[in-house]
Amino acid sequence: MHEMLIVASFWQSYLQALPQPSVSPPSSITQQKNPAYFSEILSRRERHRQFFYDVARSKDDPESSEKEEPKTIVIFAPHPDDEILCCSRTIAQRLQQGDRVKIIYVTDGDGLQEVLPARAQTYGRSRRTESRVATRVLGLEQSDLFFLNFPDRQLSDLMENENVRSQYTGQTYTNHDSAFPHTPYRLSLLQKNIDRLLSRLEPDEVYIPSQIDEHPDHRVTAQIVHNILSLREKKPDIYEYIVHGKTFPDQEIASRDPLKLKLIRFFRSQFHDRSHRESLEQFASTEEAFQRVGAEIVKKQ
Ligand SMILES: [Zn+2]
User: Fold this and answer.
1) Residues of CATH 3.40.50.10320 domain(s) within the chain?
2) Are strands 298-300 and 289-292 parallel, antiparallel or unpaired?
3) CB atoms near residue 66 (< 10 Å)
4) Residue 270 and residue 282 in contact, taking contact as beta carbons nearer than 8 Å
5) Distance from the Cα of residue 174 to its chain's centroid
6) What DSSP character marks residue 180?
7) Separation of 5 CA from ligand 1 center, angstroms?
8) What is the pLDDT of residue 169?
9) What is the CA(213)–ligand 1 centre distance, in A?
10) How far is the CA of 211 from the centre of ligand 1 (A)?
């Protein structure tokens, strides 16, 4: 840390002497976590400058160094792709800051209509793979992803029925390779498994779908997580995102993010036709908006 402060002091004086010559890149794990995503957002030189600027600021302000404690962020995705559509910029930024990011997928999105059950299962596995690839580009590991494999398009059935059978895969319990294998499709067991994950991860912030999202799986996911969190002692900050339906009232139209667009294009299984593709690509925006529960403002990242 002492060496870092010396470097920071150097950087402070260096900032005043513009234009700047190029400098050797500093070694920083946080900068290397997701270079594929970030390298084009900020130039290499800008990132080096920002890094030293932040260190210099933390030296001057004792409070800011106390705020550097890494946080744990948990994102709930009803289907593989929701995490990228709603939160890929947020994930990249939080990893860059040194925070931990974990994603819980409630279903595999295997609700493929008018096909044999085995085909629907294969489709679900391919959707998992798409999420694995896209999140790897962001800098996440396989161990950061939790696939619960509950029935796609039928989460609302769990609220009304004791045991549910997937209309698509024919399954009544989770796959052997899910985070909790061979779990019967029952609301109480889904709640229990999510609660166990939250106990293990102890998130500081949780991102969930909005309760005004038009997709029933999204609304039910939100309701389930709200119910579980209300019973837990540690209360993380909760942020809601919208994928289906209207945007938040004061959400603005931002410009297109070509890197987010690249991530979205990993989800080829969702490009059923041109209109599907375009509806997904419209999420490639330079702004991600969240409604913080209990607050009126929309947070933008
Ligand atoms: Zn979804």
Assistant:
1) 72-300
2) antiparallel
3) 9
4) no
5) 23
6) S
7) 45
8) 96
9) 10
10) 13
What are the tokens at 101? 């990011």
**CA-CA-CA-CA torsion for 205, 206, 211, 213, nearest 10 degrees?**
110
Over residues 127-156, the pLDDT tens digits come to: 999 999 999 999 999 999 999 999 999 999
**AA identity, residue 61:** D
Question: Separation of 31 CA from ligand 1 center, angstroms?
Answer: 30
How far is it, in rounded angstroms, from Cα 108 to Cα 113?
14
Nearest CA-CA partner of 79 in 40, 46, 110: 110
pLDDT of 31 higher than 90: no
Q: How many A from CA of 3 to the centre of ligand 1?
A: 47
CATH topology of domain 72-300: Rossmann fold (3.40.50)
Each as own residue / partner, the long-range contacts of residues 249-258 (CB below 8 Å, 24 or more positions apart, any chain) are 249/298, 250/298, 251/287, 251/289, 251/298, 251/300, 252/287, 253/285, 254/285, 254/286, 254/287, 255/285, 255/286, 256/284, 256/285, 256/286, 257/89, 257/284, 257/285, 257/286, 258/40, 258/284
Let me know: does 123 contact 272? Beta carbons within 8 Å: no
- Identify the residue whose tokens are 């969930």: 208
| Residue 193 banded pLDDT, cuts 50, 70, 90 | very high
- Ligand 1 center to residue 38 CA distance, Å? 25
Q: What residues contact residue 239 under an 8 Å CB cut-off, 6+ apart?
A: 205, 206, 207, 208, 290, 291, 292, 293, 299
User: Which tokens sit at 133?
Assistant: 């690839």
DSSP code for 103: E
Ligand 1 centroid, distance to 239 Cα (angstroms): 16
Cis peptide before 19 (omega within 30 of 0): yes
> What distance in angstroms lies between residue 180's CA and the mean position of ligand 1's atoms?
21
pLDDT for res 272: 82
User: Which of 218, 222, 250 minimizes the C-alpha distance to 238?
Assistant: 222
- Cα dihedral sign, 266-200-32-41: positive
